[in-house]
Please model this.
Amino acid sequence: MQTTLADFMKGTPDGIEAESILRACVHCGFCTATCPTYQLLGDELDGPRGRIYLIKQVLEGAQPTRKTQLHLDRCLTCRNCETSCPSGVRYGRLLDIGRRLVDERVARPLAERIRRTTLREVLPRAALFKSALKAGRALRPVLPVQLQDKLQPARDPGRWPTRVHARKMLVLDGCVQPALAPNINAAAARVLDALGVQLITAPKAGCCGALRYHLNDQEAALDDMRRNVDAWWPYVEQGQVEAIVMTASGCGVTVKEYGHLLAHDPQYAQRARRIGALTRDLSEVLAGFEEQLAARVRHDERPRVAYHPPCTLQHGQQIRGKVEAVLHAAGVDVVLCADNHLCCGSSGTYSLLHPDIAHELRARKLASLAATGADSIVSANIGCITHLQSGTAAPVMHWIELLERVLG
Model:
C-alpha cells in the first residue's frame, strides 16, 4: 500500500511504525471474512480493510470525522484479522495509533466522554472497583440491564496455599478479576502448589494497562505498565521467580507486549523487554505438567465441557491447543464450537460501550456453544467468562477451576 504521511507524522515513532504496517497490506480482503463486526454490519468500513483506509487517510493529513471515530470504535480489537492475514499486517498496533490520532482531533459527545472517563478511572483501580461492585450488587435491581448482566454473585476463593517451594512464579492479580472472581487465581495457586510450584503476588502490581490503553488514555496506561515493571523487577533481578503467570489472557497479551510499548522509554525499555519475555499464560505453564496431571486424576468421570478460546489467547498471543491439551490430560472431554475463532463480544469495556453488537455476538457464540451438547463452558479470560455467563444459565468458569475440581 502506497503511503504519503503528513508532516506531523513523518519521522515520529508512531509514524514510522504505522507506515511499515500500511506498506505490508496488499488489499486482499481475507481479513473481512473473519471480522465479527463486518459479518454483523456488512459495511466495508466496519471491517479491517476499511478501517485501515480510514487510518491511512488520517495519517496522510485528512481531517477525521465523528463517523471515522465510530467505525474505529466499533472494532473489537479481537485481532482475528491478524491470524487470517497472509501478509502479517499488525492491525492491532495500527488501530491503537489511529484511534489516538482521531481522538485528538474529534470531540466526543459529553455523555460518551463521561462514560469512558468513568470506566478508565474506576475499573483499573482494584480497591475502587471492588467498592463499586459491592454497591452495584446491592443496587442491582434498579441498574440498567447491561450493568446488571455484569453483576454475578461472588464465589468464595477458598484458601491460598502457604507451603514454600523452591520453584516460584509471580502471578498478576489485575484490577477487576480480584473482585469479580478471586477464585481464579486461588485455584491456580492450589493446582500449582500440588505440582511443587509456589505462586506469589507482588503487592504493588495492579492493572496491566490494557483497559486505559484501549480507551485511548495511553499515557496513563504506560504509567500502569511502568508501575508493574517496578513491582516485579526486584523478584526478577534477584532470580527469585522463573516466570510471570497470567490467568487472564487479556492481561497476558498486553504484558507480553510491554517491551514494544515501552521501547521508547530509555529508563524502562530493557526491563520491560525482560518482563515480557518472562510472561507466560497459565496454559503455557501447565502444559509442562501433563504427565503429573494425568497421574493425579482421582476418578473415571470424563466431564464434557465446551471451551471458548479468548481472542486475546488465540489471536493476540497466538496460543492454541494448550488449554485443551492440559484438560485432556486430566481426563476432561473438551469440545470446541463451530465458530471458535470468532469473538464472543466482550473485548474489555466493549460490551458496555457497544452493548447491541456485543449482545448479538454473545447470542451467536452461546448458540454455537450450546450446539456442542456440553453442560458447561470454560474460558481463559475474566471478560469472556463474565460476558458469556450474563447470557446463559449454563455454568461458565475459568478452565483452571474445572481442572482443580477434577483433580480433587
